[in-house]
Amino acid sequence: MSASTIPYKIYLEESEMPKYWYNVRADMKTKPAPLLNPGTHRPMTAAELDCVFCEELVKQELDNDTREYPIPEEILSFYRMYRPSPLVRAYCLEEKLKTPAKIYYKFEGNNTSGSHKLNSAVAQAYYAKRQGLKGVTTETGAGQWGTALSMACSYFGLDCKVYMVKVSYEQKPFRREVMKVYGASVTPSPSDTTAVGRKILAEHPGTTGSLGCAISEAVETAVSNPGYRYVLGSVLNQVLLHQSVIGVETKIAMDKYGIQPDIIIGCAGGGSNLGGLIAPFMGEKLRGEKDYRFIAVEPASCPSLTRGVYAYDFADTGMVCPLAKMYTLGSDFIPAPNHAGGLRYHGMSPVLSELYHQGMLEAISVPQTAVFEAAEAFARVEGILPAPESSHAIKAAMDEAIRCRETGEAKTILFGLTGTGYFDLVAYEKFHNGQMDDYVPTDEELAKYAAKLPKV
Ligand SMILES: *Cc1c(COP(=O)(O)O)cnc(C)c1O
Question: In angstroms, what is the span from residue 289 Cα to ligand 1's centroid?
């Protein structure tokens, strides 16, 4: 098909939507390291994981071999409410940057939760319902995951208990209320509703909480309430599997119009959107069929891939979760208070960590004021108000496009635009008022946290 017939926005037909999730682990020669029991340091068995997670999700978590998972019809019907998501050619951005590069972005912000997280939330809620559970517990930081899960739970008639990092609970009342619209109960974390919460409150009075701490509370609540399981919005293998719908859909759209990306870019917090977007392309690279450059973009204030250690670590501050081998800054690491742009998890998906370790994936970090500058430049030409998280990818894509202008290469750049920034206007306000700095942790600080990694 000739370039002139490529639409500005590529929307697939409903009938062209992906019917399966793609499991990139099936094509990895060296598999990601297994989760370990924090007590015995032996690989977690399905039976142990079944106490915390839903059975089907445990199966997916441990399955390194099945390449394709058919998406159940109930999940496909939910996906049809907001998918297929558009693949957009950023003509206006290209023009502004005067670049010969072709820039495409896959936009996942077209649903009420405002991000890609709904893709996995609906899958996790569906399997919980099918298992006959009463409800699920989870943590949320800024609130995107909690919102997505509340929507999915209300659709399937499940109870949803969300532990929300206290500072966000207080500073982001709108997301909190959206979760309540969908019937979730939202508790600021740390709280006195759990033993681990009470312990953290006693040790750190006045703490405004962290993701790791909220995870500990959510896990404890799940295992101590019959009929409840814990669900997580990123990091885990199962979440990357569900998020592969982004990449598979992108690939169907690109193949339809004969578009071949050279560089694929995504922001990386726990790694789920990036892992999902790159999955089928990475599969081709792993099988030696094609080559692509993959770039993970993380905040300079929370640089797990670029400055972390590849080691077993706790997934949570309370050290109740299994140990995961990943690039990590240490489970106590909390980005500086001035960090406004999300992506604040201390570790990284074991799948992406292993791919990075194998040299299949590049990683860069960017300072937050540059991220907000890129966000505004993008909003002004492409219209969409991007989430700060997504804007890390925008920044990297713009830099690659500018490099193309300098070298004259007409590369095709694809990036993931994971969500919208309507609930992040306090961060934009800080940026406008010059109250945002680019604090980057020192080597000494990072070494202090790394020294506390568990000895495995
Ligand atoms: C949660 C979130 C991210 C980061 O999470 P990943 O698991 O790394 O994808 C990025 N963008 C948005 C909009 C988010 O809500």
Answer: 29
